[in-house]
Amino acid sequence: MKKRRISIDILCISMLVTVFMAYVIPCHHINDWQKSYGFPFTWFTIYHDTIGDSIMNSTSVSIFPLLANIVIFYAIVFHTKKLYDMLERKKDRKSIDESSQA
Questions:
Q1: Are 45 and 23 in contact (CB under 8 A)?
Q2: CB 3.0 to 4.6 Å from 74: which of 6, 14, 53, 94, for a disulfide?
Q3: For the segment 19-78, what is each residue's pLDDT rounded down to a tens digit?
Q4: SS3 letters for 10-53?
Q5: What's the rounded Cα separation, in Å, for the pair 70 and 66?
Q6: Could you tell me which residues are beta bridge partners of residue 44?
Q7: What letter does residue 59 receive in the DSSP assignment?
Q8: Looking at residues 92-97, what average pLDDT do you find?
């Protein structure tokens, strides 16, 4: 059985995409004092209940939705890269076959 390792490059890309999507996708207004960010699962919440509070007291990061988003984007990037590599190999084989026939 072939042991697969996690690609650090793809993992970094999926983390960046997860954080970037929180900035790009509009927030979800839960109520007047709470906004949540993240796609497809909301993982970052800002509370506006007290004025003058520090950023540490007025925000919340949910770890499990954050990890779920990273796994989802990792799978998307991994399979997209795999498909791209497969198409490139097919294209290279086709060009080699054409050059050998000429």
A1: no
A2: 14
A3: 998 888 888 887 888 889 888 899 998 887 666 567 777 888 899 999 999 999 999 999
A4: HHHHHHHHHHHHHHHCCCEEEECCEEEECCCCCCEEEECCCCCC
A5: 6
A6: 37, 61
A7: E
A8: 72
Residue length, the chain?
102
Distances (CA, A) of 84 to 78, 91, 94: 10, 11, 15
**10 Å Cβ neighbour count for 93?**
10
Q: Please state the domain extents for the chain.
A: 8-101
Tokens of 88: 């490139």
Burial letters 71-80, b for 16+ CB under 10 A, else e: ebbbeebbee
pTM: 0.77
74 close to 10: Cβ distance less than 8 angstroms? yes
Place of tokens 């084989």: 93
